[in-house]
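User: Fold this; tokens only.

Assistant: Input:
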Amino acid sequence: ANEAGVGFEDAAQYVVEKQALDCFTNVRLRELLERLGAERYVVYGVVTEYCVRCAVMGLLGRGARVEMVVDGVMALSEEAGRKTLEEFVGAGGVLTTVAEVVG
């Protein structure tokens, strides 16, 4: 617990700052993921072929289920976005939609 009496497990959200496209360049991210011990990750955001790709491919290396919300991502290049989705699925990722995640 910290000064306010709030412990790591009590947090409603965790914010990981990054200074590069790849969120895994923040050395604290790996520690956070280890502490959370999640069995499933759901990823959305921009841009599909850059930041989102780095996040999902890095998460796939952790051995948990990784889902990309296809109607929650946007690519700069339609072709590059399609290739990223294919690479992600080929590496074991799962495509999902907002309706499937919140439904």
